[in-house]
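Hey, I was hoping to borrow your eyes for a little while. I'm sending you its amino acid sequence along with the backbone structure tokens. Take your time with it, there's no hurry, and the full record follows here.
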Amino acid sequence: MASITKDAHQPPRSPFWIACYNGIGSDGMVRRLKRSTKTTDRKLAQRLADEWETLEKLAGEKRLTESHCRKVIAQMYERTTGEPLHFNTAREWLTEWIESKKNETELRAFLKYKQIVNEFLAHIGKKADHLLREITQTDIRSWRDALKRKGLAAPTVNHAIKILRMPFNAAHDAGHIEINPTKNAVRPLRDEARDVSKDVFTPEQITNLIKAAPSEDWKGAILCGYYTGLRLRDVADLEWSAVDLDKRTIRVKTRKTLRTVTVPIHPEFRAWLEKQTRGIGKAPVFQSLVGKSGGGKSGLSMAFKRIMERAKIKGRLLREANGAGRSQSSLTFHSLRHSFNSAMANAGISQEIRQKLTGHTSAETNKVYTHHELEALRAAVSVIPGIGGK
């Protein structure tokens, strides 16, 4: 029969009650066990001692189940702390995490998170309804390998793993799991296409792109990309509040790096801006492009690809389509950013200045966009040659 006692040492080494109960040793023999209850409440200490002895008895009779353990431990925890103890399954925790993000992130990001979580749960099958702590590094690697077999590009796979780490990091921080299965489970895949030198648009090609543009917004967006070096989503979501025609600057916080950059407005892009009806405050500069997704069949990237096709411009094939993965060309809207940076580099503009204009975080990153083989341009953004013929 279980009992409780206090430390007999004088003075007592601990104020807590000590539970004394029968337990089964590894040799099958009954032993008297002692364990601190970590409480000074006599009644609670006795209940803990009784329950520990019950668990030991069930274990000795080989009738102790995991669900029984969870139930007893949860009851003990709630009596001790006043808070319920939850044993989350992988599906329960990941679904709860997704719901918590609904009001914390943009809709586009929320939908992406939800897609990744649902794909992972579908991949692990029945294990999705096992305890969260049962998810292992093997499960993470298996899913990564499945994404690769589908033909997805390395950056896409790496991004999916990065998203999946978020709920597991949260579970680890909250104490729901002792080991985070996503930590060091997989290394980022190498993107072979990224190692290939990217191309830039010539002024003549940019002229043809503008002629082929289906709307005034797209014409302005192409000019903006070429003369500011901003990324596609930053261009599409550009607001009039970021445009200062008097100072001839555009000041934006970039989505990718969250760095604020100030870029001088080139005379040709300024001329385009001055022809537009200026909006107030957060009004978009490119009304038909703002808020659109970058990817997908109806996204901005695909729309620009169609403009390239109408302009009869075709880049080198860096990656062939494979399964669910798409092909990758050496010329995309991002090539306007390469063109902007390379033009300045060949004009003798220092790397430090170019990093400030492009928002790059390191010299190593900035070198990716430099193409010294292009003709030397003059010295700064304001003297990048006009493209004419618009």
Remarks:
- The chain is about 45% helix and 10% strand.
- Residues 364-379 have pLDDT under 50 and may be disordered.
